[in-house]
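Limitations
The structure tokens in this dataset are predictions for the assembled complex, not deposited experimental models. Users should treat interface geometry with appropriate caution, especially where small molecules or nucleic acid strands are included. An illustrative entry is reproduced here so readers can see what is and is not provided.
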Amino acid sequence: MTELTTTLIHHPYIPPAGFDAPQPGVFKASTVIFPNVAAMRHFEWKDKSAYTYGLHGTPTTYRLEERLCTLEGGLQCLLLPSGLAAIANVALSTLKTGDEVLIPDNAYGPNKALAEGELRSWGISHRFYDPMKPQDLAAKISPQTRLVWLEAAGSVTLEFPDLCELVRLCQARGVLTALDNTWGAGLAFAPFDMIPGVSPNLAVDISVHALTKYPSGGGDVLMGSVMTRDAALHLKLKLTHMRLGFGVGANDVEAVLRALPSLALRYQAHDASTRTLANWCLTRPEFAQVLHPALPDSPGHAHWRALCGAGPGAAAGLLSVMIDRRYSQAQVDAFCDALKLFKLGYSWGGPMSLVVPYDLASMRSGWPEHLKAGTLVRLSVGLEAVADLQADLAQALQKLA
Ligand SMILES: *Cc1c(COP(=O)(O)O)cnc(C)c1O
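Predicted assembly:
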């Protein structure tokens, strides 16, 4: 007789097949069991026809990848342990010593830090371009340029570039484009079909998405994705992913799979509340400028309208205010500290509203000419009742006086 411990490991019971439920089951594995040696030798993970090792995919990760492809209009997808890891995977896969990467000056800060801190030391150079001036990007593309990052809207300052023009410029010069699509989330615009109805599709080559934000929706998961519509490019990215050992936890994938069905509804709700607050902020004398792509005076508004339309769900839940220069840093800090519903914290996309004061001068190559002087505070609008959020801002503004 086999001993108890062995039986508990190699238990003969197999539950009946045919179970179904709204939420798919979660498969957790480092080890994947093969039926025989021939299978072990020949099973192929690269085309997702079989399973070989947890890092190379499970039914759970494949399922999320395919749903994300549907969301963003991609054909192939990789999952990574964070949005930043997704950015790094793109850089490490597409750049080598002697190459150059161009990054918008208003890009997600850690993307710039990756170039300055890691890529530079490997002999990969970088330059920052002004995304609001396509001619600046055109002038900076050189024979060494291998990759151009795009972001719409820009991180923190929320300018909206002429994304179509920037992509066309890169395509005309044969340079690879990678979009950080976290703000648009696959909903505000289609990164692989930017002008619907026009053929061939105007598309970026790579779309990176911090699933940490809206797809997770809970403020409790870190994950990123890299999306493509080109099998060869995907394989190149996937081999880098495999060699670097990037993987994601099945329970985190489950959390995103659970949140995905409500993504569009949540995005629309964040959008609606944010536009309400943005318009209210415009009426407040404490703010020298309100930055939100749907506001007619916000930089790049016309580009946003052209790409995203102006309807519900055409913008995310971010809003920045430039607090007038007559207020000191200490007063701005007191305003942020006085907020009760907006919590001090990084990231966005969850149910709870968040606030971060930024030292913009230290984040940009120069003070952007389209921005008024002042201290920038970014608000991430959650799913609380918008009247409560507005009252919270109003009471905290009294601390500025
Ligand atoms: C948050 C964010 C990221 C990185 O996501 P993490 O999962 O936190 O690493 C990348 N790009 C943008 C625009 C983001 O807002």
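Some entries come with short summary sentences. For this one: The CA atoms of residues 20 and 28 lie 18 Å apart.
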